[in-house]
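Weekly structure sync, notes
Attendees: PL, DS, HV (note-taker this week)

Item 1: ARID domain-containing protein
DS walked through the input record. Source organism listed as Ladona fulva. Sequence as pasted into the shared doc:
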Amino acid sequence: MQWPRTPINRLPIMAKQVLDLYELYNLVIARGGLVDVINKKLWQEIIKGLHLPSSITSAAFTLRTQ
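Item 1 (cont.): predicted structure, written out as C-alpha cells:
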C-alpha cells in the first residue's frame, strides 16, 4: 500500500476465495475511480469483472471497504 504504508496482514476473502486487490484497483480505475464507481453505482460491473457470484448481497459494501 502506498499510503499510509501499512502492510496487509490478512488477505481479504469474498465468496470463499482470495480477493485480488490489484484487479479490484484496475477495474475501479478503468471506470473513472472510486468516486465515479460509487456515484454511478457501477459495483455490479466490478463484481462481474472479479468473477464473483452475483448472489452476494453485501458485495458492493465489502468491495468499497476493501
